[in-house]
Amino acid sequence: MSNYWNRRFAQEGMIWGTDPSPTALEAKGIFRKHNVKSVLVPGAGYGRNTKMFSSEFETIGIELSGAALAIAAEWDPACFFISGSVLDCNLETKVDAIYCYDLLHLFLIEDRRRLLTNCLEQLHSGGLLYFTSFSDEDPNYGCGACLEPATYEYKAGKYAHFFSEADLKQHFEHTEIIKTGTHMETLRDPQGAARQYVLRSILARKSNELSLTR
Ligand SMILES: C[S@@+](CC[C@H](N)C(=O)[O-])C[C@H]1O[C@@H](n2cnc3c(N)ncnc32)[C@H](O)[C@@H]1O
């Protein structure tokens, strides 16, 4: 996966422009209300979303692609970026909240579980999770070879998992789910060309120290 993203960030730079996702704005308001002080952003890319949080919270981004991190260091110097995989990172200090934009759907089931387990381990008890992922209402759902239930190779060499509401809730079944939502997201490349995606979001709370693998 890192080769794919490295190549894209090296060739295309700020692939989705500089604006953060509107979901980052929503998450920031929620985190503020809950008196959050620290935020982890797994799959931080080049920092377009971390910048939304780092102006107010202590923010840590984890990112696999060196090319993305090189851009991120300049774009969001207030964020502390860690080079590595969220599947096996281990922070020295737990955080109050996690915002994770369009990362979870990139993995097959085993690694989706691992991602969520590891994220929960980085979070204080009572901490908040705000995740977004592709929805099964997105037009790419059902396109291409089916690799696992609801996971399709929708472009040559690129697959994603498309979440129904029930499936998303099931992935977070060991958390206290606060709410779910659907978002029409418009992503613009640096040339201004726009593409629309249908996403689902979930806001949840880590209720106690039990892990997802229990
Ligand atoms: C769809 S992009 C989203 C980037 C960013 N969240 C944004 O919206 O600008 C997914 C990102 O996750 C990163 N990524 C993929 N696998 C990862 C992993 N195991 N650990 C950390 N980052 C990963 C990719 O390099 C890429 O930057």
TrEMBL record:
Q: Which InterPro entries match?
A: Methyltransf_25, SAM-dependent_MTases_sf
Q: Which GO terms describe its biological process?
A: methylation
A Pfam family annotated for this chain is Methyltransf_25
Instruction: Identify the keywords attached in UniProt to this record, alphabetized.
Output: Methyltransferase, Transferase
An example molecular function term from Gene Ontology annotations: methyltransferase activity
- Asked if the keyword Nuclease belongs to this entry, the reply reads no
Every copy of the Methyltransferase domain together lies at: 39-127
Protein name according to UniProt? Methyltransferase type 11
